Structure formats: structure tokens, C-alpha cells
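Subgroup meeting minutes
Present: P.N., E.W., G.H.
Scribe: E.W.

1. P.N. recapped why we're keeping a running log of single-chain structure predictions: easier to compare across weeks, and new members can see raw inputs and outputs side by side.
2. G.H. added today's entry (250 aa).
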Amino acid sequence: MSDQAQQGSGLQAVLALPGFRLLWLGQIFSQLADKFYIVLMVFLIAQNWAQTTDISSGPLAEAADLLRQQGMGSNPGLSNGGVGPDAQLITLLTTGIFAANTLPAILLGSLAGVWADRWPKRAVMVASNGLRTLITLAVPFMLLPGPSWLGLSWGYWGLLVITFLESCLTQFFAPAELAAIPLLVDKPLLLPANSLYTTTTMAATIVGFALGEPVMQLLRQATAPPPTTRHPTYEDTCCRQLGEGPAHHR
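Output recorded in log:
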């Protein structure tokens, strides 16, 4: 039997396993949801803080100047000659979301993997996903008016905390998810199972960010004011930058 025939037979055999198939499908939807979460954060930033936050002075102005000095000023979509300061502010605030989403992987990645490997895999996955769901339900409350800090509403800082906590829980979920594969698949099928898992993880990451702009357009149309008062589509410009930001991998 040729290598291609063996690979095809291996993939078919792996997908024929009900337990692995459910885990694999759940992984695809989970990856897409992670990317749509980032898109939702950009949308909320654009709708709630881009036009109401002053970056002409204070720490935000200094951060915006630093970003321009690092090369954003040469990007016509993010410079003053492009879509204006709103896009610069969205980019600046979205950078904070990316940082909150990435830091837990740096700080907790290895340690959380060791703990998750010692605990029951199913319990870790169920508990972490349940807690992530509860945390995400707090997002609408971040849109309520409240005090400001460093020129930004408390809601934005709340989104950073939510994103950070959600990413922390992901550091426990991801290794438990991978460690569950050998429990569902026999040893001869581990190679095609891991290959399929890795391939779909990367594909879901690419597709999730590729669908970001259409999703952004649908969200904007659902909440759009009359056309005469529409602001230029600065959200689109920043959404296109998502593919250049740090991707969140499981």
C-alpha cells in the first residue's frame, strides 16, 4: 500500500472514532470562536471608545506617538493621512487586547501544561470551558458607563482583564485537550490523529481571521446609524491588520 493510501486510510479510521470526531469538531469551533472573540473586541473598541477617547494628550498620546515612530506612520491606513486618528486609537487599544491574550501563554504555558497533565483531562476541559463561558458573559457589562483611568473608560480595562483570564484558562484547556487524544485513539493511529489536529488548528486560525472583515461588516450594518452620519469605515482597516497580529494558538 502506498504512503498516500495509508494516510487516507489512517485519516478515515481516525474520523470513524466517535470520541475523537467529537473532540476534533469541538476544536474547530473553539478555534473559530477564539478568532471571532478578537474580532468582537475590535468591533467593541471601534463602536464604544474610538470616537470618544481623546488621544491628543496624556499617556495615550505618548503611546500613539511611539507606535508611529515604530513604523505605523508609514502605513497609509493608519497614519494621519489615512483614515485618521480613530484607526490609530483602535490599533493602539487592540494591541492591548492582543497583549492580554498572549501574556498568559508566556507566563503560564509550561506550568499549566504540567498541572493539566496531572489532573483528569475531562474535568480540566469541562471546568476551563465552563469558566471561560461565565467570564465571557461579563463582556456586555463592560459597556456600561463608569469611571475612567488613564483616559480610558473602566470598560476597556475590564475587557483586558476578561481577555487575560480567558487566555489563562485556555492554557489549562489546550494541553488537556491534546493529552486526551491518546486516550481516544489507538497507538497506530496517533500520527494521523495528531496531523489532522494540527492541520485543522492552523486552518481554523487562518479562516477565522479571514472571516473577520465580513463579520465586522455584518456587525456594523446591524448597528449602523443613518448613512448621512456614517464615519469612514476605519474598522475595516484595523480588521485587516488582525492577520498581522499575534495569533492565539491552542
